[in-house]
């Protein structure tokens, strides 16, 4: 873990109070088997998701994603799935499939309906310019998913 | 590779002539980067998919699936996806997600419709009692998938 002098997420960032922010923290704590985040604030726990332009520039263009990055991607899509579930009242199941080379595909299904389907690439560079941008992306996926469930509730109920 | 005295698949097994049998051979050749199956017959290429009761009994209950077994599972579901595609005229995309411990989930999607969704376990013991039983299982998945596409063609067309 690298120490940064100015935190990339302010302790009072309003995103931390949203359902998405709280779900992200919950998911991060859920995968933390050794309690290493026990004494961390929400802002500290989510800080690894924020990659500034400068940090991104320093990462190699091609690289193998390590386990921590893969876990973070899982957390992000797990959180989206949890919010879909809360909004539509049906189980949403995420499936993250990554190759060693950092390519992959993410699906979230509700019943027999695919509500999110994304190709991933450059997984080792996973991160967002800010916490707000991360929430924007999650919100976009969430609203598309909820709309799909509404339009095809028969398939979502299968 | 282990040598067997009596082949587990007869050279004139009628399954080898079916669309499924031919697709399985095509998929096996497709992943064979070194041409090691070039001189093998269809029956020989598909032989590893047949596990007799005795062979299964000799396998450990718990084990890590090796790359060859994982490739075979991919081939089996790729073949099913290819047949779905041929029958319904729409792209069918398989997604096989396995953990190191031999558990996993397989999905095949057509548009935004999930036409196959299976949990896998004991992946290192993947195999069928006979070539005919393997085709029966594929046919079952195929007919369910085609029925789903027929019932929900709007979602399959998304």
Automatic annotation (TrEMBL), chains A, B:
Protein name: NifX-associated nitrogen fixation protein
Top-level taxon of origin: Bacteria
UniProt source species: Thiohalocapsa halophila
């Amino acid at each position: 873990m690298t120490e940064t002098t100015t935190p990339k997420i302010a302790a009072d960032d309003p995103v931390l109070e949203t359902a998405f922010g709280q779900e992200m923290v919950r998911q991060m704590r859920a995968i933390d088997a050794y309690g290493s985040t026990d004494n961390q604030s929400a802002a500290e726990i989510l800080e690894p998701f924020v990659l500034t332009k400068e940090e991104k520039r320093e990462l190699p263009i091609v690289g193998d994603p390590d386990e921590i990055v893969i876990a973070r991607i899982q957390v992000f899509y797990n959180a989206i799935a949890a919010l879909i579930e809360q909004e539509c009242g049906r189980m949403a199941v995420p499936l993250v499939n990554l190759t060693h080379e950092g390519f992959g595909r993410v699906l979230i299904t509700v019943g027999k309906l695919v509500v999110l389907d994304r190709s991933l690439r450059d997984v080792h560079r996973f991160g967002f310019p800010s916490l707000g941008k991360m929430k924007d992306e999650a919100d976009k996926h969430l609203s598309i998913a909820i709309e799909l469930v509404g339009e095809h509730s028969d398939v979502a109920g299968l």
